[in-house]
Structures are given as structure tokens and as C-alpha cells.
Automatic annotation (TrEMBL):
InterPro entries: Adhesion_Centrosome_assoc. GO terms for biological process: intraciliary transport involved in cilium assembly. The keyword Coiled coil applies. Keywords: Coiled coil. The keyword Chloroplast does not apply. This is ADIP protein. Residues 66-93 form a coiled coil. GO terms for cellular component: centriolar satellite; ciliary basal body. The lineage of its organism: Eukaryota, Metazoa, Chordata, Craniata, Vertebrata.
Amino acid sequence: LSDLEEDTGELNKENMWELSCETVREQLTNSIRKQWRMLKNHVEKLDNQVSRGHSEAWNEKDVISREDHELETEKLELEIQQCKEMIKTQQQLLQQQLTCDDDTTLLLQDCYLLEERERLQEEWRLFREQKKNFEKERKSFTEAAIRLGLE
């Protein structure tokens, strides 16, 4: 761009922007065309290999027997079934753990409620004790007031 700016000192910035966009557009188009040609050539090579493979005689070691194929398929199906069972087992264990967590939470809540109840019982006991002391003081004060009134 600096060389272009020196050569075209009279062009304003908008013309420069349009010119650079054109250049980038052309480069991008050329790059896409080049990649498309490479992909096309690659696909043609693969087609040629497949057609050569079908036209040539297959070696016995290149071909998998139908029985081997069926055995392998059965093995894979068995493995899939085992994986499904394992997933079900994991889901069940996870669900049990969640219910155990719920049970644990309930037990903890029960423990907290029990502690709260014991604390409240202790406060009630202190309250009754203070009430007794207050009643004794009131009774003593009343008796002292009556004695003072008689004197």
C-alpha cells in the first residue's frame, strides 16, 4: 500500500480502500479456485484407485471373509450392549447416590431440629428458673413493703 500511495499521490483514501478490497477479493477468489482444483484432483485420484481396485483381482488376504465380518459385527454389537448396560448401571448408582444425599440431608435437618429443640428446652428451663427468682424477689419486696408500712 505504501508503494501504491507513493505512485498514486492524487488518489484519495476511498479509492485506495476500493483498490485494496479488489486486490484482496482477487487473491481470495484465486485461492478458492486453487483449493477447489486440488480437491477435484484428489477426488479423481481416489476414484481411479477404487476403479483399479475393482478391476484388479483381489488377493485373499485383502478380503475379509463373510464369517469373520459377521463375528466382528457380533463382537461390536455385544460391546455396544455391554456399554449400554454399564451406562444404565451408572445412572442407577447416580440416582441412588442422589437419593442417599437426600436422605443424608433429611438426617442432617433432623439433627439440626433436635439441636434446636434441646437449645429451646434449655432456654425454657432458664426462663422458668428466672421466673421463680423473680417471684421470690417480688414476694420479698412485698413483705418488706408491708413491714415498712406497718412501722
